[in-house]
Design a protein that fits this description.
- The structure is a single chain.
- By secondary structure, the chain is an all-beta fold.
- The chain contains no helices and 11 strands.
- The strands form 2 sheets. Strands 2, 4, 5, 6, 9, 10 and 11 form a 7-stranded mixed β-sheet that branches.
- A hairpin with a 5-residue loop joins strand 5 and strand 6.
Length: about 130
């Protein structure tokens, strides 16, 4: 089991920045990929970014490319999502998730991930 706790959400004006963090505990050493997803009201959960724990390789959704940066610190079992130039359409609950599967190639699929945090609200006002 892996326990995940997100923090750092809040209210920000369009064009502003927020940094989300995700702290992992439990069998964190078994994590292969860590990812961020978001879900806006009335919409499906969508992929934001992911990072491979071993070498830091990253993948971003087009919506966040150039604006969002995912990073991790293995020693602290923590992952971050730095979000810049935020837009009202970035408003959502943001979830962190982890996968232990070393064979997965679908980093952007929610089905890949085994454990999920409870989410943190990000609201961007126009």
């Amino acid at each position: 089991q892996v326990q995940l706790v997100e923090s750092g959400g809040g209210l920000v004006q369009a064009g502003g920045s927020l940094s989300l963090s995700c702290a992992a505990s439990g069998r964190a050493f078994a994590i292969y990929i860590m990812g961020w997803f978001r879900q806006a009201p009335g919409k499906e959960r969508e992929f934001v970014a992911a990072i491979r724990r071993s070498d830091g390789r990253t993948l971003y959704a087009d919506s966040g490319k150039g604006r969002f940066t995912i990073s991790r610190d293995n020693a602290k079992n923590t992952m971050w999502l730095q979000m810049n130039s935020l837009k009202p359409e970035d408003t959502a609950i943001y979830y962190c998730a982890t996968s232990q599967s070393v064979y997965t190639t679908t980093w952007d699929s929610a089905f890949t991930y085994d454990f999920w945090g409870q989410g943190t609200q990000v609201t961007v006002s126009s």
